[in-house]
């Protein structure tokens, strides 16, 4: 009887709040609200990237791709960019960072028309890829993302 009660207790705990059933919010995502409409925000973002001499590797229009398969998706575009001078030393320390680099900023438009720029904090690379010691480029990436999104979103 004690064994059965123990098994039931563990089962209930796992069902109510155990691993695999409750997903914590991702605290490495940064969302910046834009003062501009979607197209203007995207234009300002690509201009802010170019102004800093960074290479824009890709612009992926997810809404267009969704439309091609009959799915209605609000404006959602991913901009992939970076500079080998910053990213390459990080990749040399841990090649798996190539999964997350170059940097990316997602521009989205909500149901209410509000536009946001979303990016993952570079500190996520540290734990996610076992970077030890923490490369100084992480600070440069963080400051760059903050400056770029601020310039793209603020009046």
Automatic annotation (TrEMBL):
This is Uncharacterized protein (DUF302 family). It holds the Pfam family DUF302. Residues 60-122 form the DUF302 domain. InterPro entries: DUF302 (IPR005180), TT1751-like_sf (IPR035923).
